[in-house]
Amino acid sequence: MASPEPWMLVPIAVLSFVIAFFGASIGMVGGHFRLPLLVMYLGSVPGGTATNLAVSAAGALSGSLQHAREGRVSWRMLMTIGIPSGISAWLGAHFSSRLDAGLTSIVIGLVLLGSGLQLAIFKESKAPLPGAHFRVGFEVLTGIVLGGLSGIVGLMMGSLRLPAMIRVLGMKPEVAVGTNLAIGCLTGLFGTIGAIQGGFLDIRALLVLVPVTALGSLLGASHTKRYRKETLKKLIGWTVSLLGVWMLAQAFLFQ
User: DSSP class of residue 223?
Assistant: First the structure.
């Protein structure tokens, strides 16, 4: 198979900057939209998913540092969700070639659509979790499950994690935004390490996409404080719903 033309990375880079800018302002990096383009560009599902995860990790690092500077990161949840998520992502990336990523994308798309609509349409639930031990257990389990999915499909799973952090754990949307991006950074970094061991990363794509994605994420993270709480929650909900529809379309059209 012939090597892809370098100029084809230009439109992907422009899109990556735009979605990183908007995504970081609401706690995500937007790797869902970049992933099918990288798979088509590289002509390889493992190469596209691994490279996409690495680019997303770089964007998440840049954006989460800005969120941390402005006090929107929960360090406790970075430990209880982020570390299990990172380890699970490493395992998922290491064994991703043995699993059906297409079927996984369909399931994730349906869950995203449902959770996003709940967040966008219904009022915020005030019911607390029954006890601190249950809460910590839920956080660790969330990290393990979503981290494993991240390594398999090449996404950081922030779009699934973010609604759960707001509705189930009762976090303030602005803090959930920054924390989710920081957890995504850990998940993406560990997943990338697993991918490197499989030899899947495309260095040329990384050299082009990482700088523009990191810049877009850094600039976008500074815009979170401009949103009202209710506006931010609805914006997250509708965006997650759109990502669910996109993942379903991607599973059926780009496989």
Answer: T
| 242 is a domain residue | yes
pLDDT, tens digit (0-9, with 9 covering 90-100), for 99-148: 555 666 677 777 777 777 776 776 655 555 556 667 788 888 888 888 88
Q: Which amino acid is at 42?
A: L
Alpha helix stretches (DSSP H) within 154-202: 158-167, 173-198
Instruction: Count how many domains the chain has.
Output: 1
DSSP-derived 3-state class of residue 225: helix
Residue 195, phi then psi, degrees to nearest 5: -70, -40
User: Angle of helix 45-69 relative to helix 9-25, nearest 10 degrees?
Assistant: 40
- Decide if 41 contacts 48 (C-beta within 8 A): yes
Q: Does residue 2 lie in a domain region?
A: no
Question: Backbone phi, then psi, for 201, in 5-degree steps?
Answer: -70, 140
Q: Does some domain include residue 235?
A: yes
Domain for residue 127, yes or no? yes
**Mind listing the pLDDT tens digit for each residue in 232-249?**
878 888 887 887 787 777
pTM of the model: 0.79
Which has the minimum average pLDDT: 53-57, 62-66, 127-131?
127-131
Plot region of 137 (φ>0 → left; ψ -120 to 50 → alpha; else → beta) = alpha
Report the 3 state secondary structure along 72-91. CCCHHHHHHHHHHHHHHHHH
Domain encompassing residue 102: 7-253
User: What does the angle CA 147 – CA 52 – CA 162 come to, to the nearest 5 degrees?
Assistant: 45
**Residue 224 dihedral angles phi and psi, to the nearest 5°:** -60, -40
